[in-house]
Amino acid sequence: MMRVTTLYAATAATTAGYYTRYLTEATGELPGQWLGNQADRLGLHGEVTTEALQALLSGCDPTTGATLGHPLVDRTKSNGTVIRAVAGFDATLSAPKSLSVLWAITGDDGLAECHDVAVRAVAAHLGRYGATTRVRSNGTRMHLDTHGLTMAAFRQTTSRADDPQLHTHLVVSAKVQLPDERWMALDARFLKRHQRTLGGLYQSVLRAQLTYRYGVTFEPIVNGQAEIAGVPAELLAVFSKRAAEIDTGTADEVAEFWRREGCAPSRHEVALMERKVAAESRARKTGLTAAELWTQWRDEAAAIGVTPRSLVASVEQAATAHPPTDRDLPIAPIVEALELGASTWHRADVLRTICDLIRPVPGVSGERWAQWLDDATDAVVAQCVDLDPELPAHTRRRASDGRSIWIEPTASHVTSEAVLAQEQQILDWAAEATAFDPHPSATVERGGLDVLQHDAASAVAGYDPLTVIVGPAGAGKTTMLRAAVTALHAPPHRAVVGFAPTAKAARVLEDETGMLSDTVAKLVYEWSRPDRPPDPWWQYGPGTTVVVDEAGMLATHDLHRMMQLARQERWRLVLVGDPHQLQAVGRGGMFAELCTAGRAIELERIHRFVEPWEAAASLQLRHGDSRALDAYAAHDRIGAGPLDEHVDAIAAYWIDLHDRDESLAITTARNADVDLINDRIQLLRWQRGDLDRTRRADTADGIGAYVGDLIATRRNDRTLVTTTGQFVRNRDQWIVTAIDGHGDVTAARIDGGGVVTLPADYAREHVRLGYAATEPGNQSDNQDRGIVMATPSTTGRGLYVALTRGRRSNHVLVVTEAHDLAEAREILDHVITNDRADVPALTRRQQLRDDRLDAVFQRWINDPPTQALPSPDVGIGLD
Q1: CA distance 212 to 2
Q2: Alpha-carbon distance 598 to 440, whole Å?
Q3: Residues pairing with 168 in the sheet
């Protein structure tokens, strides 16, 4: 696949030496080659020299030595943070292991040439679509095409352990030149955001060239990559020495730990051991000749009974078992796959989907296949709806994508008629359902509700076809719903049922409000079965109040189906949620549109937090206001430091609170960090004697669970029922009470929801330790205290959710290289503006129109015309 890293000007000499000397010093490795239109314009052809690459990465012309545009110099901010000058990027393209092994055993350089064909296709694609720059112009920015990219390709054939590993380092200069000869900085967002697409393009062209030249076939495509069919898995394992080397070294470290401590190390400690072994065993390549390596590789293959002849025969036999690929492009399945993932798409998203779904056609070369992929992408895009605003014919456009220079080249802008229709139908039904004056209930008891809570509860228990309630974190929406349900259950006993996007949220909704609740997916499934109507249990009479909690997490197709059912069955639909918290995985965002465009009641008073300042700060955080960070910093709620230290601190904090009978919500964005924290807490509990270590159950995270551990079930299973009659839900938390000799786990739900026995197979596949969770796992939780570990990948929504879980306090620990609070604050400033939530197509269309108008009027404000202002469609200054 493809991995992108940043290269810095301050280390240009070292970097250039690494690529041109170290990587190519082994016999058989080829010198780097210049690629790209801008390389041609600089007179860079053929082999890459150390001097030329160093000059380029220093921001200078390799021929004349002249500075290309602004010098690449590090700068220091007022808070002491150093901003390093970016020299370029390393985009590493790696072949499937099966290709590397086939090349190594057969010695056929044509296989490596197939890899080169795919690399050149990626370089050409990147040069065409990813070579823009940003230029300030009268208060706004133009996004302009350039002459192209300067790239240096370094093909490598081995790993550090001398295993066959075909890969190419594509070094991309950060300097680009405009047609007016000015040198600017590359806008690298296309390269960074579409790594998955570029990697998928490489893999697809590689498959095509291999099919064309050798007639091979492939295993199923997984995450864009497929192995060559017929290459034995045992052979692939033989040539993974680097991984085996680390495994062996780690095993030695584990054995030493046993001798020293008298017990097994935790997963956290094993991870540290692996890092240590990897660093200590990172050796220079041996420098063996190609002939020596091929002899070594064939000997290793022969040791497991594989010869070049038998390997080729296996690959050829596998090729006969696969039917030929259909030459027709199935546009409908591609669009359907896109519709599941997002509301709007970029051209690169379309290309990625095609590469993932379409196998190469026999008889088509890699070069022709790359062109076919480009044409196929255009064909699919042509069948979609373009959301970019219509522009006058004389409007200045980019040649690379045909879009206005005022529109960011990475902005998504196409969708389907089906997506637009669903969104419009949702808005139309909402407008129809709220066209009349509201008719709230007059029977809701005020009790301890604040004014807006009472208004919201009265609306929920009222008679309107659609009610939308917005509840910020801690605003007491559950208390409000409980009052509404109480009123509905009172004579004359009006029917009310609850639903939520997740099983855990549905269970919480039922437990805390008293209304029967389940998942939206279950309701939609029961009403969508083609073989029979829904069971009576899922059929509700006219006038039934259907409450959907956490409605902000509803996928658009589920919300659309819920509204169809509400209209068809004459149910009342109540949507309760927060558009500023987590949204749907995939296509979503329509709850936010209903809150903006329709009639909604928004709760304003925050009830959850003990500290008044935290209530105010949470609302600021909800809106991305940096003053919230000032408040958390002023109350010592922000920490900075390395990952390992944070893991240790969080684990110790959990133990301390557990001893004081306080609960803690631990949140992080990455599953890997969740596993590290879970493992560290388990280790501390071992050392304290809290866990019974005589018997272990295998779990999906690989850590294992012991009697006394806190675990989380990660899959709904309606066949596993507790002693209180409730099925096992995704993200429910349990205490392990027993483990039998077969690995079956008996566990008690932590909230008193009964005891269940989880079969060993379920535990092995769907149980993880439950001390920490990602943001979706904690959104519906309220605990005594909360703590979040944040990184640059954390989103503003995720941070808001994580910092509002604790009633008494909430802390954020930012992963930094050093204990630098200034760096931590800079990361958090980025985090609160980082939003990856899906945007509905109708909203995206309006955003693109607004961006267009902003660009026009900013230019007019800063450089007003002498005549009367023309229509925005004229496009001032764009011709």
Answers
A1: 23
A2: 17
A3: 93, 155
Strand partners, 772: 666
Which of 689, 699, 785 has the alpha carbon at shortest distance from 734? 699
Helices (H), 94-188: 97-106, 109-129
Q: What confidence score (pLDDT) does residue 263 get? A: 54
Cα 195 to Cα 348: distance, rounded to the nearest angstrom: 10
Cβ neighbours of residue 627 under 8 Å, at least 6 residues apart? Answer: 617, 620
Q: Mapped to the 3 state alphabet, what secondary structure does 669-683 carry?
A: CCHHHHHHHHHHHHH
**Is 10:85 a contact under the CB 8 Å cutoff?**
yes
Task: Look at residue 731 and give its three-state secondary structure.
Answer: coil
Helix (H, G, I), strand (E, B) or coil at 868: coil
**Rounded distance between C-alpha atoms, residue 551 and residue 581, angstroms:** 10
pLDDT digits (tens, 9 = 90+) for 812-869: 999 998 899 999 999 999 999 999 999 999 999 999 988 766 655 455 444 444 443 3
CA–CA dist 578, 594 (Å, integer): 11
Q: What is the pLDDT of residues 576-586, one digit of tens each?
A: 999 999 999 89
* Residue 459 to residue 583: CA distance in whole angstroms: 24
Torsion angle defined by CA atoms of residues 700, 701, 704 and 705, in that order, rounded to the nearest 10 degrees = -80
Length of the chain: 879
The neighbouring-strand residues paired with 177 are: 183
pLDDT exceeds 90 at position 500: yes
User: What distances in angstroms separate CA 647 from CA 279, 675, 681, one per listed residue?
Assistant: 21, 10, 9
Question: Rounded to an integer, what distance in angstroms lies between the CA atom of residue 161 and that of residue 239?
Answer: 9
SS3 call for 461? coil
Rounded CA separation 381/354 (Å): 11
- Number of continuous H segments (helices) and E segments (strands) in the chain: 31, 33
Res 456: pLDDT: 98
- Half-sphere exposure for 166 (CA within 13 Å, toward CB): 26
**Maximum Cα–Cα distance across the chain:** 89
pLDDT of residue 664: 98
Is the pTM value of this prediction over 0.85?
yes
Using a 10 angstrom Cβ sphere, with 0-12 exposed, 13-18 middle and 19 or more buried, the burial of residue 818 is exposed
User: Is 191 in a helix, a strand, or coil?
Assistant: helix
pLDDT value, residue 250: 63
Compute the distance between CA of residue 82 and CA of residue 67 in angstroms, rounded to an integer.
22
**Mean pLDDT for the chain?**
91
**155 CB neighbour count, 10 Å cutoff:** 21
- Distance between CA atoms of 428 and 415, rounded to whole angstroms? 19
Place of tokens 């006219």: 542
Tokens found for residue 29 = 């490795």
3-state SS track over 382-445: HHCEECCCCCCCCCCECCCCCCECCCCCCCCCEECHHHHHHHHHHHHHHHHHCCCCCCCCCCCC
Chain centroid to Cα 75, Å, comes to: 31
On whether the CB atoms of residues 348 and 413 are closer than 8 A, the answer is no
Torsions phi, psi for 575 (to 5 deg): -110, 120
- At position 552, the amino acid (one-letter code) is G
What burial class does residue 533 get, using C-beta atoms within 10 Å of its C-beta: 0-12 exposed, 13-18 middle, 19+ buried?
A: exposed
Q: What is the pLDDT of residues 379-432, one digit of tens each?
A: 999 999 999 998 888 888 999 999 999 999 999 999 999 999 999 999 999 999
What would the pLDDT profile of 259-272 be if each residue is shown by its tens digit? 555 555 655 456 55
What element of type H or E holds 614? helix 612-622
**Of 69, 92, 85, which Cα lies nearest the Cα of 19?**
92
Cβ-contact 462, 438 below 8 angstroms: yes
The residue with tokens 């047609």 is 179
* Span 82-94, pLDDT tens digits: 889 999 999 999 9
- Start-to-end CA distance of the chain, whole Å, equals 41
